[in-house]
Design a protein that fits this description.
The complex is a heterodimer. Helix content of chain A is about 25%, strand content about 20%. In chain A, strands 1, 2, 5, 6, 7, 8 and 23 form a seven-stranded mixed beta sheet that branches. In chain A, strands 10-19-11-12-15 form a five-stranded parallel beta sheet. In chain A, α1 crosses α10. By secondary structure, chain B is α+β, with helices and mostly antiparallel strands. In chain B, α1 packs across α2 and α1 crosses α3. Classes of the chains: A alpha/beta, B alpha+beta.
């Protein structure tokens, strides 16, 4: 314990990723004195918690942060993790964010006039705290991992770097969202037999009518749908990431693409019994649900293009005609079980999602599933805010380009709070 | 091989409940099994359960979505290899290998909207879940 006095600041931002830095940008704009605390380095998760081949799902031209735009030569490409890290570092420099790296927050607790933040490098008292510590701090892994025979190696995306991380032989990838489909494809290309366990998922083409599908999400206004105008916000916030990959070829990586690469599709992993993985027989229905939802979304795009979007569609490269994609083909007979002791499967990759970690947050704002209870980033504890969570204030909140509007509004609220109380 | 099951009471919402009337189910086996054929086979009750659960789901999802249904019909087929229950081949399972439900729906809705009703009904169906996912079953002698 060092004998230093307790430091004071108006606000503390926890996390120096794109969200925390965007918060800092708007705090500086309002001359609110603040400190950004970062456990590692700027853009830490992008640096150290992602696999080697990962690229952003959003095209480069969509990489925009407050006061910073992509200015490279490849607007339609997708940033590698090294490029994302550089981009966020540049943002930290340009916005002169008061970042302290290598500082671990161990506790945030409520005190009379604000919050007391305990860190690995001292104590801070502040009126407001912005939690921007990320949505993907820990991989979510089902309980049934304990029933996997020890001969099968298990790993999460945090432990996966490239196919050489895994032993030779068959791999079961559990989960068919962005992570699962990307890793299944990469492992299949490495020559391993891959089985992919598929639950409910979000299917999207990479390119629609000649434009990136995320151009459509942005331009048509789908991404701007607000959290307080959604029929089912809980569902929107829990929606799995879309089956997308960022590649120079702009390829679509849906289940049909994976099946044509030789990946065997099986149902959702339902149970482990006597060393056997048991899969749901409801595969056809998760295909139907995803196909129908994709078609509805494309209908929305077409309707927008025909009406309000006519001017936007008129700009830039020629837009193609409406397209519809083949339904997801059900396998002849999907296997309902796999004997994990037979040697057919040598490794399991749990691509079953990520969750935030709030072990250090000693304020009762976390629900029984470990998520923050918040209304558009405003927590139920005065002066406490969150940024960088899925559908925080809009559908685009999940993406880098979604942080600007969210951060501006959350910091507006924070500034209002600081102004009215002494 | 003939059994009669009678159901009227159940436990739900934290207390004992009662249906308006008693339901009686006769189950038996066809005469080729040297039985008297006093009712459908027990496994056919699974199909009855699946069809009625999915149909109820279609009706309630349609109501939620403001879709007027005129008629809903379903045909249920269960592919069953009886060598399993006869113990003739240990590689053959006792239960169904495949189940197929075909809906014919007349409603004020597009083909896609009707397909979405059926998909959502499966997603929320207790019987669909029970048939497609493994379930721990305890059978004991009291």
């Amino acid at each position: 314990m060092r004998g230093t006095a307790v430091e004071r600041a108006a606000a503390v931002v926890i996390g120096a990723g794109h969200a925390g830095l965007a918060a800092s940008h708007f705090l500086s704009e309002r001359s609110i004195d603040h400190i950004v605390l970062e456990r590692g380095e700027v853009a830490n998760s992008w640096r150290s918690e992602r696999w080697d081949s990962l690229r952003l799902l959003t095209p480069n031209w969509q990489s925009r942060l407050p006061g910073l735009r992509y200015e490279g030569q490849d607007p339609d490409g997708y940033m590698t993790m090294g490029e994302v890290t550089e981009f966020i570092e540049r943002f930290a420099k340009v916005s002169r964010a008061p970042v302290r790296t290598g500082v671990n927050v161990t506790s945030v607790r409520r005190i009379d006039d604000g919050y007391h933040v305990t860190t690995s490098h001292g104590e801070i008292r502040c009126r407001a705290v912005v939690v921007a510590s990320g949505a993907c701090n820990r991989p979510t892994v089902p309980q049934l991992t304990t029933a996997v025979p020890p001969s099968v190696q298990q790993l999460t995306p945090f432990g996966y770097r490239d196919p050489a991380t895994l032993p030779d032989g068959g791999v079961l990838v559990v989960g068919a969202s962005a992570t699962g489909v990307q890793l299944a494809a990469e492992l299949a290309r490495s020559g391993r037999p891959v089985t992919l366990s598929v639950g409910e998922h979000v299917r999207l083409p990479r390119v629609y009518r000649g434009r990136d599908v995320l151009w459509w999400m942005d331009a048509s206004g789908v991404w701007d749908q607000r959290y307080d105008e959604m029929d089912d916000l809980t569902r929107a916030r829990r929606l799995p990431s879309p089956q997308l990959v960022g590649t120079p070829e702009r390829t679509t990586l849906d289940l049909n693409a994976l099946a044509s690469m030789g990946v065997e599709l099986v149902g959702r992993l339902a149970a482990m019994r006597d060393g056997r993985a048991l899969f749901s027989g409801g595969l056809r229905n998760v295909f139907s649900l995803a196909d129908l939802k994709m078609t509805r979304l494309l209908d929305t795009f077409d309707e927008w293009a025909r009406t309000r979007g006519r001017d936007a569609v008129g700009q830039g490269p020629e837009i193609g005609l409406p397209e519809r994609f083949a339904p997801t083909h059900p396998p002849q007979a999907s296997r309902l079980q796999l004997d994990l002791g037979s040697g057919e499967i040598r490794a399991i990759v749990w691509a079953t999602g990520f969750r935030p970690g709030y072990g250090w947050l000693d304020v009762p704002v976390v629900d029984d599933k470990g998520r923050l209870r918040h209304a558009g980033g405003v927590l139920d504890s005065p002066g406490l805010y969150a940024l960088g969570l899925p559908v925080l204030r809009r559908r685009k909140s999940t993406f880098i380009c979604g942080i600007e509007d969210d951060a501006r509004e959350v910091i507006d609220h924070l500034a209002g709070y600081l102004a009215v109380r002494p | 091989m003939h059994s009669t099951v009678t159901i009227q009471n159940y436990f739900g919402l934290g207390q004992e409940q009662s249906h308006k009337k008693e339901s009686v189910f006769d189950a038996d086996h066809p005469e080729v099994f040297a039985a008297e054929d006093n009712g459908i086979t027990p496994i056919e009750y699974l199909l009855v359960g699946l069809a009625s659960c999915l149909s109820a789901g279609v009706a309630s999802v349609a109501q939620n979505r403001g879709i007027q249904l005129r008629s809903v019909e379903s045909t249920v087929e269960g592919a069953h290899d009886i060598r399993g229950i006869l113990g003739a081949d240990s590689d053959v399972r006792n239960g169904f290998n495949d189940i197929k439900v075909t809906f014919t729906i007349d409603a004020d809705a597009s083909k896609e909207e009707i397909e979405a009703l059926v998909a959502q009904s499966q997603k929320r169906s207790a019987v669909f879940d029970a048939l497609t996912n493994p379930t721990n079953v305890t059978v004991e002698v009291a």
